[in-house]
Amino acid sequence: MKHRFILILAIAALSTAACTEYLETTPTTKVSDIMTWSDQQYTDLYINSFYTYIAEYGQFGSLQFSSNMTEGLTNTLKYGSPTPGSHYGDSNNYLFYPERITNQGSLLDVWSATYNRIRRVNEFLVSLGKYSKYSDEVNTRYEAQARFFRAFLYFQLAKRHCYGADGGVVLYEDVNFVKDKAHATEAETWDFISSDLDFAAANLPARWDAANDGRINKYMALALKSRVMLYAERWEDAKAAADSVIINGGYALVDDYAKSWKGDNSESIIQFKYSLANKLSHAHEIYHVPYGDFTRVGEAEIGGTATPTQEMVEMYEDKDGNTVDWSTWHSTSPVSARPPYDDLEPRFQATVLYNGAEWKGGVMECTPTGNYGRYMKYRADGYPNGRTVTGYYLKKFLQTTTDEEFDSMIISNGKRGDATWVELRLAEVYLNRAEALYHTGGDALADVNAVRARVGLPAKTSVSGDALFDLIRRERTIELSYEGHLWWDMRRWKLAATEYNNYRCHGIKPEGSPGSYTFEYVEVDDEDRKFPARLYVLPIPTSETNNNSAIKQYQAWL
Q: Which one-letter DSSP state was computed for residue 129?
């Protein structure tokens, strides 16, 4: 059985003044309250607006890292611009100068925006209790949906602000957002989120009827819980939630990895379907296409803003599951031997475009003079304008339409697209359970091998201890690449301050022409990347501490 999240937004179809009024953040009139709870179609419109939160905090939205990918703060992705700006140099600024992340604010700060959304959910819950005349069953299902979204929102705060005895966020269950309230402990924060997800899982259907297909269901709540409990280091809870999804949820890994993150399939658990017709779109794709994909006459090249690094490429095994020796291509001088791109496993082929790769009927030529793909040294220009500073392009998330179709879609829609955002899929749940089993002494290897089997890689055997954890880490990095996990994972594992400190990333610069290429190992940074340990917890913003006398700044930020 296939379950999927499909946004059911009919808001645009209702344009009367009354409908506009009731959708305000804080219903203030009796008319709006009566209207909201007078008919389920109006109540649905209210709760449907919460579904957009899934997209806003995803890779295609603006609230995870101000439209940048957090992988740009890891060793797997390089933003090609030194000039500040979303999709451009913001990531580099934080990599090289992490002191710019302060309690005065940062692009990773979502405190105020998220509490505004939490208040909206709480307003829904309070008004449900006051005004709804629906049956207990209907009311409970509305409450369960709303509490799922409240948990989702609090998780966005918790993954930023929970770290040991000093962490935790302010918890509100109603609309009484008092001015002076202390933040909860880390344990209390995780308890609150877990309770909301448990309520959602216990009171939502395993499957909705056809008219409501795509609404949050029992297994979506449990899938999110399997993720949340890893951050909380509550391994048994993570395992139990993942067990329910894998055993009873009716999901299945798709055969083709290249389709796994595209949505509308058996692997997709929570997804957000953008719709150009309903003016729900994003600009992610246009910023990552290779040089030559956007070719409208009179328009400047665009794309290539963030590209995979050589460090990421070297994580992949070959098709037979063997570790690849890249030492030949670490030479300080160009070499004529072609890198073993064609021998790498299917997830590489689906994720990375490289010199010689076939793409949209053409062949990539990522040289300094290439016509389909083009190399640029970092800082040679303020903006990449379609060029790559690593020799690679990010293929994942790009649509495979022809150049003409792509140009037409992008131009006619203001350089915006509508590729689906998959927030959570079954492969992650397998890897969540693998990590939980690693900590509880279960068979973590079986879940890792289930994910590997999908792409035809041989099973790993006789792996335990630190080697098993390293395997889980590597599989998460590869399987979930560029889906918004790695930087957060490295923080919760407490590894970022060691592995992401005082290092530089690399790429491969091709030169020449087909049949006579050379390949040069190049640095793509001109100074060391840094990750101070204080970033394991992000600060409470000054806007909160200045107006809340009961809250205390985390020790790391005093």
A: H
- Which pair of tokens denotes residue 38? 């007078």
Max CA distance (Å), the chain: 76
**Cβ neighbour number for residue 19 with a 10 Å cutoff:** 16
Angle between helices 235-248 and 218-231 (to 10 degrees): 150
Cα gap 177→153, rounded to integer Å: 16
The total number of residues written for the chain in this structure: 558
Q: What is the full DSSP assignment across 257-305?
A: GGGTTSSSSTTEEEEE--BTTTTB-BSTTTTTPPTTS---TTPPP---S
Q: Are 71 and 482 in contact (CB under 8 A)?
A: yes
Q: What is the pLDDT of residues 138-161, one digit of tens each?
A: 999 999 999 999 999 999 999 999
CA count, 13 A, side-chain hemisphere, 396 = 27
If one counts every other C-beta atom within 10 angstroms of the C-beta of residue 551, the result is 16
Output the six-digit token pair for 191.
Answer: 């308890």
For the stretch 314-325, pLDDT in tens is 999 999 999 999
Exposed, middle or buried, 464 (CB in 10 Å: 0-12/13-18/19+)? exposed
Q: What is the mean pLDDT of residues 529-547?
A: 96
For residue 465, which phi and psi values (nearest 5 degrees)?
Answer: 60, -140
* Nearest Cα to Cα of residue 353 among 318, 388, 395: 395
Residue 4 has pLDDT above 50, yes or no: no
Q: Which residue shows structure tokens 């150049």? A: 403
Taking each helix axis from N to C terminus, what angle separates 218-231 and 426-440, rounded to the nearest 10 degrees? 50
Check: CB of residue 432 under 8 Å from CB of residue 238: yes
H-type alpha helices, 132-260: 136-161, 186-203, 218-231, 235-248
Strands 358-359 and 421-425: unpaired
Task: Determine the pLDDT at residue 327.
Answer: 98
